[in-house]
């Protein structure tokens, strides 16, 4: 990993830290993650190989990212106030997000520190045609994780804001 890779990963971690702090669901906290993830995709996703089993690898990791994103989204605490719906990621939501990032960073670290031959052997045995297939798969995993998380939180927030308020009962 180079300095840019560490900076990009740091920015993605900041998305989680923003959610751990919590705040009202508004346009800025919808647009910022989409822009950051889009920029990350534009930087890394030059090609999506589909030869051999490259597409299978990409779909499996994208699916894993989507599962982690949904889990992150459904474990984020939402509550309603008069001025809107608020969200705050707790330990579980942050853990799902960090697990995905750690998995991706761990793979790159392992590839750079001695596991390259094992990855190459695995790739040959499973007809993964190039290192770009791994890059595309991990970027698609990150993208699907971020988008699934946003969709899950926004859908839950929409459901919460569109349901009638429960009147408080005085006894």
Explain what the structure shows.
- The chain is mostly helical and 171 residues long.
- 71% of the residues lie in helices and 7% in strands.
- It has six helices and three strands; from the N terminus they run H-E-H-H-E-E-H-H-H.
- It has helices at 3-21, 28-44, 54-74, 91-112, 116-125, 131-162; strands spanning 23-24, 77-81, 84-88.
- The chain has a three-stranded antiparallel β-sheet with strand order 1-3-2.
- The longest helix has 32 residues, at 131-162.
SSE order and pairing:
Layout: H1 3-21, E1 23-24, H2 28-44, H3 54-74, E2 77-81, E3 84-88, H4 91-112, H5 116-125, H6 131-162
Antiparallel strand pairs: 1-3, 2-3
Helix pairs in contact: 1-2, 1-4, 2-6, 3-4, 3-6, 4-6
How would you summarize this macromolecular structure in one to three sentences?
The protein is mainly alpha-helical. Helix content is 71%, strand content 7%. The protein has a three-stranded antiparallel β-sheet.
Total strands: the figure is 3
- The structure class reads mainly alpha
- Supply Rg: 19 Å
What percent of the residues sit in helical stretches (DSSP H or I)? over 70%
Count the helices. How many? 6
Identify the notable features of this structure and list them briefly:
171 residues; mainly alpha; 3-stranded antiparallel sheet; 6 helices; 3 strands; elongated
């Amino acid at each position: 990993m180079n300095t840019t890779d560490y900076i990009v990963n740091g920015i993605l971690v900041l998305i989680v830290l923003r959610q751990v702090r919590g705040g009202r669901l508004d346009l800025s906290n919808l647009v910022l993650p989409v822009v950051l993830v889009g920029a990350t995709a534009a930087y890394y996703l030059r090609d999506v190989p589909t030869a051999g089993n490259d597409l299978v690898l990409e779909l499996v990791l994208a699916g894993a990212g989507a599962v982690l994103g949904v889990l992150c989204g459904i474990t984020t605490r939402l509550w309603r106030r008069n001025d809107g719906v608020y969200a705050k990621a707790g330990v579980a939501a942050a853990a799902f997000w960090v697990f995905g990032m750690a998995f991706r960073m761990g793979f790159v670290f392992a590839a750079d520190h001695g596991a390259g031959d094992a990855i190459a052997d695995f790739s040959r045995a499973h007809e993964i045609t190039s290192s770009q297939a791994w890059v595309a798969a991990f970027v698609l995993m990150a993208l699907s994780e971020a988008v699934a998380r946003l969709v899950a939180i926004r859908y839950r927030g929409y459901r919460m804001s569109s349901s009638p308020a429960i009147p408080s009962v005085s006894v």
